[in-house]
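Bumping my old thread because nobody answered last time. Still need a sequence for this structure:
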């Protein structure tokens, strides 16, 4: 199953299971079915509970808080994650504070889906990875699945497990990827998972040996890492394991430690700029857990400048396999 089909199938299941679920956002109605077709068929099947809204992210996000307090289960779609900042006041000063401000007499549980990241030539205001900005909001949960997770199952857990205010990040480059699990890994790669409703995926390109390198990342970066792991094995005989949490806030630090404890070299990869980024938080948490010791830490992120519309120029800004290989050749002497 494709990543996008899992999302669409899950939305159908969620709306069928619970009449209190309301799904709304911009341009969701058939035959368009949303900018990435995640809502295809939903407005036809559930016309009273699938709503296409005016273009106002602040209103869209603000409405979800009122719906939730009133007993509904809103799922919001923000077409591009860049536009979440238009609703940042509603996120920061309202949704995440309602429970606390009203002494837990109300419950604000909202799931906000959004397409995130670059790789499609959509330009500087439609291609950013803004997780570090929204992650600074206290009380917010952020889910960022890769194609080794089933995003539909994770989405249902957000809606039905009372997860509070959740941003569900869907990397655009994942939409056309086929889902992978223990049963259909590419040759040379194996995967296992932590035991959680939002599991961490542990990939490896070796069976019995100690890893030469551990990679910590999330979301659409798996596409790059999967290819990188295979090349490092076949061309350079480098043993690699990769740690991909599906929840990136709150940080599942115990899962990450489990995945890197045997490594002496750690690479943290993010599509957002590395300065003041998610990777910085990972390093701080690992240091506080006193497990870094003599481990060598490297960070790779996007260059700190706007993302061009021209695909070839965009590739120069975003992390690439070539850039990572160049860094590793220097650090690992391969």
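Sorry it took so long. Here it is:
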């Amino acid at each position: 199953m494709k990543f996008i089909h899992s999302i669409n199938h899950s939305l159908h299941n969620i709306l069928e299971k619970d009449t209190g679920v309301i799904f709304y956002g911009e341009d969701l109605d058939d035959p368009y079915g949303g900018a990435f077709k995640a809502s295809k068929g939903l407005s036809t099947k559930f016309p009273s509970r699938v709503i296409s809204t005016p273009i106002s992210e602040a209103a869209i996000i603000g409405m979800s808080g009122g719906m939730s307090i009133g007993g509904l289960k809103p799922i919001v779609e923000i077409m591009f994650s860049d536009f979440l900042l238009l609703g940042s006041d509603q996120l920061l000063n309202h949704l995440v504070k309602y429970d606390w401000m009203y002494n837990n007499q109300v419950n604000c549980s909202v799931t906000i889906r959004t397409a995130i990241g670059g790789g499609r030539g959509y330009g500087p205001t439609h291609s950013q990875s803004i997780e570090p900005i929204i992650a600074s909001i206290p009380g917010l949960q952020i889910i960022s699945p890769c194609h080794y997770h089933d995003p539909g199952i994770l989405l249902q857990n957000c809606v039905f497990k009372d997860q509070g205010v959740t941003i569900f990040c869907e990397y655009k480059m994942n939409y056309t990827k086929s889902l992978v699990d223990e049963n259909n890994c590419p040759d040379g790669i194996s995967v296992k998972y932590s035991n959680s409703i939002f599991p961490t995926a542990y990939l490896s390109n070796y069976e019995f040996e100690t890893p030469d390198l551990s990679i910590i990342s999330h979301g659409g970066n798996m596409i790059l890492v999967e290819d990188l792991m295979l090349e490092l094995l076949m061309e350079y005989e480098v043993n690699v394991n990769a740690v991909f949490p599906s929840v990136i806030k709150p940080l599942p630090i115990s899962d990450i430690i489990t995945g890197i404890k045997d490594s002496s070299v750690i690479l943290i990869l993010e599509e957002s700029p590395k300065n003041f980024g998610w990777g910085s938080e990972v390093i701080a948490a690992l240091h506080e857990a006193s497990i870094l010791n003599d481990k060598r830490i490297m960070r790779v992120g996007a260059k700190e400048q706007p993302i061009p519309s021209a695909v070839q120029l965009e590739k120069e800004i975003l992390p690439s396999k070539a850039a990572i290989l160049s860094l590793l050749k220097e650090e690992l002497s391969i």
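Residues 23 and 265 are 44 Å apart (CA to CA). Let me know if any region looks off to you.
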